[in-house]
Write a structure and sequence with these properties.
heterodimer, A: mainly alpha, 79% helix, 0% strand, flat, B: mainly alpha
Chain lengths: 231, 231
């Protein structure tokens, strides 16, 4: 444990980076998932095909490959573009934070697409008909009937997607994001205590996972407040 | 910047040279993980606190931490202790391949045991009562009644986990293993052509995961034949 002293603040800032990646990728993941689900449920065959390709590609490709491709691919493209304007520029890249955040959001978004699609299909037809009978518009039905029913169905798998996002953050350290695993690598070169440092990183991620799991459980209980024990 | 088709054609055979290692990682850790999952499942189903609790904690920790951190703890972390270097396990833990297989098996075992548990719990209670009424012992009911049905229920989720495992094998490249991903990273380091190499590797992985999905689809179809005969 004494090896950790002097590294607390580095781990703290590393954890802040994990949290930032989580918040940004969560937002993007929900966005990609909803767009994908909307495309799959739409009547347009083109949109369905595109969304189908999206889920096949990102569910079949290793996370590390997507992260490396997005980071180095964007760097090489941006450098080529920059060199058109100024031939002296040697290297331009997207910050690892954003390349990594987009990469994991694309991947987990492809899983979320299936979750949201299934959840929207799980909304009871009777509820929709009841809304129609009450004279609700399509938009009102969506906001007051479909969304409240669908998020309850989507929540358990969605909790797993959030856990995936947090755990995939560790992979972004490979392209140089200074999150906790990256901090541990630096600490090891100084202290020579790899076991202690990596176990501590594991504990930090376990704390994040525990927090998310508990938040999801609380939300599930909140979602059930009107359906259970109300008979 | 241009897409160099010759480089793609040259690098695909080189990357396929790592197919053996990727498959070895997938099959060996898949089987070891399945064995571990069955042990964990029986511990959890035993309802004895001293067996159930350790299994629950193990699953919680393994699912709550990133697989990359687990790989690093085993490969870089364990040699911190002298007693591990002098133990009988050192010949395995000294090799990156042994560490990768160990980490992947320990990780996938935790996920698969939850999938199997879901399958067992989903078996209709009436069937085990029917078994008991026929005078079968608890063990017989479990082996001959519950297990075959639980396998059919758990198979779709299990196939997803095999695909996840296949994606995780790419992380072995972070501990110097020359699987397909490791070879691709070497080629990119030589040529600095991420698009040509990584996109073709992504296609190879997608073909792989589609193949796994198709194979499990066939097994599901075969196992479900009794339902079609009457339906």
């Amino acid at each position: 444990m004494e090896a950790l002293s002097g590294w607390w603040d580095d781990y703290y800032w590393g954890s802040v980076v994990v949290l930032k990646v989580f918040v940004a990728s969560l937002f993007l993941m929900v966005l990609f998932g909803l767009i994908g689900a909307a495309a799959k449920l739409s009547n347009s065959p083109v949109a369905q095909k595109l969304a189908g390709a999206y889920t096949v590609v990102f569910r079949g490709t290793p996370e590390i490959l997507v992260i490396l491709l997005l980071y180095f691919g964007s760097a090489i493209t941006l450098t080529a573009i920059a060199q058109v304007f100024d031939p002296d520029i040697k290297f331009v890249d997207i910050p690892p934070f954003w390349a990594g955040t987009f990469a994991i959001a694309f991947i987990v978004g492809s899983y979320a697409t299936e979750t949201f699609r299934g959840a929207f299909m799980g909304v009871k037809p009777g509820s929709i008909e009841a809304a129609r009978a009450l004279g609700m518009s399509n938009f009102q039905t969506f906001v007051y009937i479909r969304i409240p029913e669908m998020w309850r169905i989507a929540l358990p798998p969605f909790g797993n997607h959030m856990l995936s996002l947090v755990k995939d953050t560790a992979l972004i350290s490979i392209i140089g994001l200074n999150e906790t695993l990256f901090v541990a690598k630096q600490a090891i070169t100084v202290t020579g205590k790899p076991f202690t440092m990596y176990i501590f990183v594991g504990l930090i991620y376990l704390a994040f996972s525990t927090f998310i799991t508990m938040a999801v459980m609380a939300l599930e209980a909140f979602g059930k407040r009107t359906t259970e024990g109300a008979r | 910047m241009s897409f160099d088709i010759n480089l793609t054609l040259e690098s695909i055979p080189r990357m396929l040279g790592g197919v053996g290692i990727t498959l070895q990682l997938l099959v060996v850790s898949g089987l070891l993980g399945l064995g571990l999952a069955i042990i964990l499942l029986l511990m959890r189903l035993s309802k004895k606190p001293y067996l159930d609790w350790p299994a629950q904690v193990y699953i919680y920790v393994m699912r709550g931490t990133p697989i990359l951190v687990q790989i690093f703890i085993i490969y870089y972390g364990l040699p911190q202790f002298d007693w591990i270097r002098s133990s009988v396990f050192w010949p395995i833990l000294r090799e990156p391949m042994g560490c990768a297989i160990l980490a992947l098996s320990l990780n996938t075992g935790a996920y698969v045991s939850e999938i199997l548990r879901g399958g067992v719990l989903a078996v209709d209670q009436g069937l085990s009562e029917a078994g008991a009424a026929l005078g079968m012992s608890k063990r017989h009911v479990f082996i001959y009644v519950k297990t075959p049905i639980a396998i059919r229920i758990a198979l779709p989720a299990y196939s997803n986990d095999v695909i996840s495992l296949q994606k995780s094998t790419a992380l072995a490249s972070t501990i110097t293993i020359a699987d397909m991903m490791g070879i691709a990273r070497n080629i990119v380091a030589e040529t600095y052509a991420p698009y040509e190499v990584f996109v073709s590797l992504a296609i190879i992985y997608i073909i792989f995961s589609t193949g796994i999905q198709k194979a499990f689809g066939l097994i599901e179809w075969r196992l479900g034949r009794y339902e079609r005969r009457n339906g």
